[in-house]
Structure formats: structure tokens, C-alpha cells
């Protein structure tokens, strides 16, 4: 006979929430968000056609029928864990998470922070590929795509996690050689440009009300990360996105000679295909990157 089984991820979320008496604690145990546990429990309730929890402002309690259900399935999870250990099969199976992100963002923000994710989740292998192309042009189906936004794409959920502005940055050594006391002093410096972002300096100079300024020299690179590296090396002054130069500013590799004006910029967002939105590993990574973004 064909077995009729409920969605197993939903059953796992219910068992943890019922055993611990808390969606929050269940989320921590399962390494997912509170919302993911709630979503899985609702999925199970819809499948069963019955409520499992009585919900209050800050707590939940099992319904009488759900208590009986939990008493029956709880031992099954324990027996499954014991059987797994007995036959030498690892309880956690290594999984690969595929991420696609812009090259400069990956180099200057994501890579320096990935060690914290790997330390917390050593069983997860993260494969990062870089691309600046639009989301709809990607040939491969990635677990998480990082792009500017917020934008709306059919079949994808979007969440912003990191905001930024743009302002001039340079090395402290360059500033010591040729001081910058006011924006007009930029005429004594080399301005660093990126070919794919030709409007950064003209827009900033216009906002600083010195649109006609002629710098001592200009130097253009084809990749933004090269432009920023040239600024660190003291070659000239770049328009730095605050999110991507925050570590360099904190470490003293770069300084921001002017606090204003600042050019507004798009936020960094995660884009996840709808069919992957409930994946525990995807939820885990997106929750982590949002926490990192808030701390930047």
C-alpha cells in the first residue's frame, strides 16, 4: 500500500516547536528563521485540515489533539536519530549552497565575512560565482542571487540587506602629501574612474557645486575593485561605496576627506526563486547575510 505521509520538513518544524513550546527556540534548533517555522507549521495544519497550536501574542500552546499527535511522532524522530547513529550514517549531510553576486561586492564585502558563516555551519559548502549581469540573464539556477535593488522579478522573492552611499575616498598617505581641505582642492589630484560607472564623479562634483572642476589627471579602470585598490595604493581618489569600503575605513587603509555630499545608491538585495524560498539552507544563509548587513 502507498504510504500517506505529511510534508517531512513541516513535520520536523512541528515536532521541534511542540517539544520546545516555542517557535523561536525551534527556529534556533533547526537553524532557520522564526517565520520559516511558522510557515512550515501552517503548511502542516493545512495538510491535516486542523489547527495544531493556539496562538497568543508572544507564545503558542498545543491544541489537545496536537498533544496526542506529538506524543506519537516524537518517539519516531528519536528512533530515526538512533537508527542513523547505529548504522554509521552521519546525521548531517554536507550540502552545497550556490550564490551568484557582483564581483566587487564579493571581493570586498562577502568574502571577508564568509569565514563566520563557515565557522557556524562547517557542514555547508558555499560555492560563489561572480557576475554583474541582470538576474534574468543567468543560465544556472542559483540558490541565492545578490544584486542591487529593490527590484521585482516574477517568480522571485526579494529582501534588501545592505544599504550604501557613495563619497570620495583615498589613502591617508595621499592625503598627507596633498591635503584636501575643501572640494575645490580636488583640482590638485588624480580622479579614479570605472568605465561601467561613468557618472559617479560628474554627479558628485555637481552635487558639490563644482561641476566645472578640472582635476590634475584622470585614470579609468574596467573593474570597480581595481579602482578601489588604486585608491588604497595612493594612486588617486575614488568614489567609494560606503558598504564596500567600511572595512578599509575602519582599518585606516582609506579615509573619507569629505562627509558630504553623499550620492544615494541602490541597496544590495537577495533574490531567491519561489521554489527555493522554504529551503532551510537558503533561509539560513539569507538570515545570516541580513544580520551581517545590519552590523555593517
What does this structure look like?
- With 296 residues, the protein is α/β, with parallel strands linked by helices.
- It folds into 3 domains: 8-86, Winged helix-like DNA-binding domain superfamily/Winged helix DNA-binding domain (Arc Repressor Mutant, subunit A, Orthogonal Bundle), CATH 1.10.10.10; 95-163 and 271-294, Periplasmic binding protein-like II (D-Maltodextrin-Binding Protein, domain 2, 3-Layer(aba) Sandwich), CATH 3.40.190.10; 165-264, Periplasmic binding protein-like II (D-Maltodextrin-Binding Protein, domain 2, 3-Layer(aba) Sandwich).
- It is 42% helix and 21% strand.
- It has helices spanning 8-20, 23-30, 34-48, 64-86, 103-120, 172-177, 200-207, 224-232, 242-251, 280-294, and strands at 53-55, 60-62, 95-101, 124-130, 144-149, 156-162, 165-169, 190-194, 217-221, 238-241, 263-264, 267-273.
- The strands form 4 sheets. It has a 5-stranded mixed sheet with strand order 4-3-5-12-6, covered by helices on one side.
- Helix 5 links the parallel strand 3 and strand 4.
- Helix 5 crosses helix 9 (242-251).
- The protein is elongated, with a radius of gyration of 25 Å.
- The model has no long low-confidence stretch (mean pLDDT 89).
Give me a quick take on this structure:
By secondary structure, this protein is an alpha/beta fold. It has helices spanning 8-20, 23-30, 34-48, 64-86, 103-120, 172-177, 200-207, 224-232, 242-251, 280-294; strands at residues 53-55, 60-62, 95-101, 124-130, 144-149, 156-162, 165-169, 190-194, 217-221, 238-241, 263-264, 267-273.
Amino acid at each position: 500500500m502507498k504510504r500517506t505521509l505529511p510534508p517531512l520538513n513541516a513535520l520536523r518544524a512541528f515536532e521541534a516547536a511542540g517539544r520546545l513550546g516555542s517557535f523561536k527556540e525551534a527556529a534556533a534548533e533547526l537553524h532557520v528563521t522564526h517565520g520559516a517555522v511558522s510557515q512550515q507549521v501552517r503548511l502542516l495544519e493545512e495538510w491535516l485540515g486542523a489547527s495544531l497550536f493556539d496562538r497568543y501574542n508572544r507564545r503558542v500552546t498545543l491544541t489537545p489533539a496536537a498533544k496526542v499527535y506529538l506524543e506519537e511522532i516524537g518517539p519516531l524522530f528519536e528512533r530515526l536519530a538512533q537508527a542513523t547513529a547505529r548504522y554509521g550514517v552521519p546525521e548531517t549531510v554536507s550540502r552545497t549552497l550556490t550564490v551568484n553576486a557582483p564581483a566587487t561586492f564579493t571581493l570586498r564585502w562577502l568574502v571577508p565575512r564568509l569565514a563566520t558563516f563557515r565557522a557556524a555551519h562547517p557542514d555547508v559548502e558555499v560555492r560563489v560565482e561572480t557576475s554583474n549581469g541582470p538576474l534574468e540573464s543567468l543560465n544556472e539556477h542559483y540558490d541565492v542571487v545578490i544584486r542591487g535593488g529593490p527590484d521585482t522579478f516574477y517568480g522571485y522573492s526579494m529582501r534588501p540587506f545592505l544599504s550604501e552611499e557613495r563619497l570620495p575616498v583615498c589613502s591617508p598617505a595621499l592625503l598627507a602629501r596633498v591635503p584636501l581641505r575643501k572640494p575645490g582642492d580636488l583640482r590638485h589630484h588624480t580622479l579614479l574612474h570605472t568605465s561601467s560607472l561613468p557618472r559617479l564623479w560628474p554627479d558628485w562634483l555637481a552635487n558639490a557645486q563644482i561641476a566645472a572642476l578640472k582635476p590634475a589627471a584622470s585614470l579609468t579602470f574596467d573593474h570597480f575593485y581595481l579602482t578601489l585598490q588604486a585608491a588604497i595604493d595612493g594612486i588617486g581618489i575614488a568614489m567609494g561605496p560606503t558598504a564596500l569600503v567600511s572595512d578599509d575605513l575602519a582599518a585606516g587603509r582609506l579615509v573619507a576627506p569629505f562627509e558630504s555630499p553623499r550620492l544615494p545608491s541602490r541597496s544590495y538585495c537577495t533574490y531567491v526563486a519561489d521554489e527555493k524560498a522554504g529551503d532551510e539552507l537558503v533561509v539560513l544563509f539569507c538570515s545570516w547575510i541580513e544580520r551581517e548587513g545590519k552590523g555593517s
